[in-house]
Design goal:
578 residues, Potassium Channel Kv1.1, Chain A, 6-stranded mixed beta sheet
Length: 578
């Protein structure tokens, strides 16, 4: 930190209690200057030689007040109601008048400069006066230093409006902006940068100055000064929008409590942090990629928690980039907010563009969100679950494991659901797109409707048969699962599946897997004789039982496992006739 010493005489100011300061001297003091609640017992002559304002006050015998500056006169007593910096800054000026040693630095130089201006300590009064010396110090040292300029800028806020009238705040902002905008190859001063550095075999590589080298040092500024600093830097036009975005991210992390945490924190001064969040939102550059999606989602979460008024624009930016969001960042959103973000995402998509990958990312995010939110049974109703899930039900997914997990978690937390509600929920899931692990879990899942379990078992058989018969060219016809159907009869609400048959089907499926594994080990290239026949017999028994009970699916365009087998046989017999 830069500093400047003025004067050469030893400091002879002493205190008597907290409210009295006096100069230890053989000469009796002849004037009392009252600053706030502190009395200074001083000598007239040193003060008269340096301060034009004190000259007027001391030489004037009248006790009338100067209304403009709120200064009151008494015989040997002067009361100054307001002086920039209070007693501390006046003492610096008084010591300078006595020629005593005074040390100026970034923390007190603005207060001393404002007080010297107030006391009219100009060159016209005496050459080399305090105003001149402080200006030299500011221009040659303080404003040439990166960190000192930031410290000085912070002190100007407490000294407003004096610092504004003297353009000290603007000079600090210009100094900061000029250095932040300089070519990074010319940065030779120290700065704070705590991001992880690249290491090579435990040795730090020599690195160029990063583009965002300045962002952390500005995080100590009050939001009012920070807004002005960022605006001044942007106005120079040398800093890219993504670096400005990085600066805002760093500031939010440091200044908004719990910004980077996955849970809410206790905040007492909501108005303060609400204004802070609003200001950060206002500063976000218009460029779409200027800030990360993670930053936007966290800022939206904080803004909603703090009750910010203007979050529509931020909500739109988050929704448009919902495919980039992380699950951990959106888990603190309520379901209504999440649904509105999906709506924004859908409206922002161009129907002419093929954005399957983007939609798949959103589908995965929503599946994970529903699975985690299902643990909160009080705030996620069936209707809200279905409403959000159906918004992305048509989105492409390589696997429906995420959908299954969300459904299973919800069923687990809501055991009171009836069969009709369970079936409506399970229609969101395509059993053909479950992984082997998900299938293994589903067939043992007693929370699922029996019909869904049977479908899972059936498609496991299809998958096993296809894998086993691939070498011989045999194929299994495509099956449209009844779980995706929306048109079913009321009879579907009553299930007549035989539990023993289901157990038998599971056993046959296990045998089929074993046979398949043996075949792969033996590299025979053919299915082991009889593999899958037991499963087919059990399926035939199950579906014939359903026909006898009258509980058949009457959905158009939807096939049950039994109907597929019948269609396959019919197709086969027709081909034989030809």
């Amino acid at each position: 930190m830069k500093f400047m010493k003025l004067g050469s005489k030893p400091d002879s100011f002493q205190s008597e209690g907290d409210n009295v300061r006096y100069v230890s001297s053989e000469l009796a003091t002849d004037v009392i200057v009252i600053i706030g609640d502190v009395k200074f017992y001083l000598h007239k002559f040193p003060l008269l030689s340096k301060s034009a304002r004190l000259q007027k006050l001391i030489t004037t015998s009248t006790s009338s007040s100067n209304e403009e500056n709120q200064i009151h006169h008494h015989e040997d007593e002067i009361e100054i109601a307001e002086i920039p910096g209070g007693p501390a800054s006046f003492e610096i000026c008084a010591k300078f008048c006595y020629g005593m040693t005074v040390t100026l630095n970034a923390y007190n130089v603005v207060a001393a400069r404002c007080a010297a201006e107030f006391l009219e300590m100009y060159e016209t009064v005496e050459k080399g006066n305090l105003v001149y010396k402080i200006e030299v110090f500011l221009n040659s040292s303080i404003l040439q230093s990166w960190k000192d300029s930031i410290i000085v800028l912070q002190t100007t806020r407490a000294l407003s409006p004096f610092s504004e009238e003297m353009k000290l705040t603007g000079r600090c902002l210009d100094s900061i902006a000029s250095r932040a905008s300089i070519d990074t190859s010319k940065v030779e001063w120290s700065y704070t940068y705590s991001k992880k550095k690249n290491l090579d075999n435990g040795m730090r590589k020599p690195q160029a100055v990063p583009r965002d080298w300045w962002v952390e040092d500005l995080c100590d500024l009050h939001i009012d000064l920070y807004k002005r600093a960022i605006s001044t830097i942007e106005a120079r036009g040398n800093i890219s929008a993504d670096v400005i975005g990085e600066a805002l991210h760093a500031y939010a992390i440091k200044r908004i409590p719990g910004f980077s945490k996955s849970s809410s924190v206790q905040i007492t001064d909501f108005a303060k942090y609400r204004a802070l969040a609003d200001s950060i939102i206002e500063l976000i550059p218009d460029e779409k990629r200027s800030v990360s999606s993670s930053f936007l989602t966290k800022l939206l979460r904080a803004s909603v928690f703090l009750g910010c008024d203007e979050v529509t624009g931020l909500k739109n930016r988050v929704g448009e980039r919902l495919d980039e969001a992380n699950l951990g960042d959106v888990l603190l959103y309520d379901v209504d907010l999440m649904q509105s973000l999906v709506e924004v995402f859908l409206k922002s998509r161009d129907p002419r563009e093929d954005d399957l990958t983007v939609k798949a990312s959103v589908a995965k995010l929503v599946d994970g969100y529903l699975a985690e939110k299902s643990r909160d049974s009080d705030n996620l109703s069936l209707q809200k679950f279905l409403s959000l899930a159906e918004m992305v039900s048509s989105f492409p997914r390589q696997s429906h494991d995420g959908v299954y997990r969300a459904i299973d978690m919800f069923l687990k937390e809501h055991p009171e659901m009836n069969k009709s509600e369970k079936k409506r929920m399970c229609r969101l899931m395509d059993c053909r797109k479950l992984s082997a692990e998900a299938c293994a879990h589903a067939v043992q899942n007693e929370r699922l409707p029996m019909r869904v379990v049977v479908q899972v078992l059936f498609f496991e058989q299809v998958r096993a048969n296809n894998n086993g018969s691939s070498s011989t060219g045999n194929s299994t016809p495509e099956v449209i699962p009844a779980s995706r159907s929306t048109n079913t009869t009321d009879q579907e609400d009553t299930e007549c599946w035989d539990t023993d048959d289901i157990k038998a089907l599971r056993g046959e499926l296990a045998n089929l897997r074993l046979a398949k594994n043996q075949q792969e080990n033996n590299n025979k290239g053919k299915l082991i004789k009889g593999g899958g026949l037991g499963v087919s017999r059990v399926f035939s028994k199950l579906w014939s039982g359903k026909e006898r009970s009258g509980d058949m699916i009457s959905s158009s365009g939807t096939s049950s496992p039994g109907s597929v087998n019948d269609d396959s046989k019919s197709s086969s017999s027709t081909s034989k006739k030809h």
